[in-house]
Amino acid sequence: MKDLKHLYYFEKLLEDSYNDLDRQAKEAGQIAIGHVCFQIPEPLLNLPGCFSVRLRAPRTGSIEMGTYYMSSTLCEACRAYLERTIEGGFNFLDCILAPDACAQMNRCVENIEHLNLIQKDSFFVTYADVPMKSDETALRHYVKQMRIRVLEPLHEHFGIDISDAALRRAVAEQNEISRLLTEIGEYRKEANPRITGYEFAVLCLASYCCPKSLIKEKLAETAEELKTREPDEKNNYRIRVVMVGSEVDDPEFIKLAEECGALVVADRFCFGSLPGRQEIVLNDSEDALTQICRTYLQWGKCPRFFNQDKVMERREYVDQLAKDYHADGLIYEQIKFCDYWGYERAAAFHIMDEEYGYPVLSVDRPYAVRNSGQLRTRIQAFVERVELKKINKEKNDRRAQ
Predict the structure, then answer these.
(1) Each residue of 289-306: b (16+ CB within 10 Å) or e?
(2) Contact in structure between 93 and 123 (CB atoms under 8 Å)
């Protein structure tokens, strides 16, 4: 296929923790808010005068210092983020707002705070207690925490407008980005998709770590370009997969899978679009904060939600994605030492195969994938296994006729 006009532009943005658009926003006097998890709703971090930056550590090399402070048995992503902070990669941030969602990520942020790694007089860190259920009691607690741990500190420290009207404007801006990404992502359902999983991952990831107002124009141009983009006459993939799991903040992992013949047609992982890049629908009869929090609780598919309803919801959601995007198999991945996705991946490997009938590849991977020979070999073997299953099914179908 012909290269997307702005793909290189978006790829360059992802090469640095402090990219050109972040610099542009800072030079315009905006407040840079670091965040580490889906559990803090993005509209609360993108109110007028500020913009959110999801922590990630592109081009990670050694994580020795992060390991020194956090030990070698904790999540490699958390250690990489701490390493990048020690290197000075997040000195541009004005605050970090973290949920009490993952103990390992909290330890990363606590080290940033207590080691005084971001030395600004105005810099601060807050931690919000977020629920592990999604009922009305949990919602009330969630709303209260977002008010006292996110909105009020932003107003007190930086004078940010946290009114209902300001929240609705932030939702409207995020909805514009979400509509564009949803439109682009829909092409992945095509029999011969006009966009690859890698290309979509680059576009989606940029929406998490760049000011949304500054990427909107090029995202809109890309959406328009895709309307007439012609896919290659012959499919360049061998199977279609849904990728599920923990942080994928480096699209090189998606590229590696697709080089092995597994086209990633749906992204149910942290930093993905399913869920998280759908529209937030607000009404006028209830305050915006409550509606935003309710939406994020409903969207939440993290395995930190332990109640049985959520456990079943996650399985049904992946099953429905596989059907909607015509997937042949599932890849469940986790970064090494991720507690939540460790048990979720182990269970899903059997359940999604035995109860739902999908071929499943279960991957425990390093944070920095690059050109991992071991991962490449495992994905190639999985592709061949799924291909063989498809061939046998086609033979049996013909015999049955």
Answers:
(1) bebbbbbbbebbbbbbbe
(2) yes
